[in-house]
Amino acid sequence: MQICAVCCGTKRLTEIACPSDCVYLAAAREHPPAAAVRRQKQDVAALVRHMRDLSEQQSQLFFLIATFLLRYEPPELNPLIDDDIAEGMDALAATYETAARGVIYEHRAASLSAERLANSLRTLLAEAARTGESSFQRAAPVVLRRIAAAAREKMPDEAGNRRAFLDLIGRVIHMQDKEAADPGQTGSNTDDGPRVIIP
């Protein structure tokens, strides 16, 4: 069967069932389009900016929470948005900061969606705290504030997207998962860009 170059490039694996031994498919996996590579670099750079100067423990906690956010399913039909994430993270951070001053007080998020998110995340954080109680108590509020700031920051090309941060971490974590499964598939295993290591 003959396939033109345009169809090969635009309908590959969507409308055309490509054989696994196709040389053009292999080349496309090894050398993704420049726009895709550029987007990957922008995504990683945006995330790295919010993780600057975090310790290894804090970086691991950042990705633990990010993964939780991607898997979180709101109990109702209200989709999770970045504002909910920012409010929930701020409430949890304030609770940890108050506890560090010797006062046990649970801060509440302003919206019901954010409060539900915070309550769900509290369980995960309580489990994570068991590994290193004192260091975790110091690391958690820093990471939570960084995630809140990242959720509030809108990239210029996504100013109207209420899930821009969620989409960003989804793309980065998905990209890292693909690279872990097949290091040569994305063609981004060179040392010319920032790298994020998922713990």
Would you mind describing this structure in some detail?
With 199 residues, the chain is mainly alpha-helical. It has one domain. The chain has helices at 5-10, 23-30, 34-51, 56-71, 82-100, 112-129, 133-152, 164-181. Helix 5 packs across helix 6. The longest helix has 20 residues, at 133-152. It starts with a helix and ends in an 18-residue tail after the last helix. Residues 185-195 have low confidence and may be disordered.
Distinctive features:
0% strand, 8 helices, mainly alpha, elongated, 199 residues
Helix content: 55-70%
Describe the global form: elongated
Biggest sheet descriptor: none
Taken together, the total number of domains comes to 1
* Mean pLDDT over the full residue set: 84
What value does the Rg take, in angstroms? 20 Å
Succession of helices and strands: HHHHHHHH
* Termini separation: 45 Å
Question: Helical stretch count?
Answer: 8
**Strand residues, percent:** under 5%
Regions with little confidence, pLDDT below 50 for 5+ residues: 185-195
- Structural class label: mainly alpha
Q: How many DSSP E strands?
A: 0
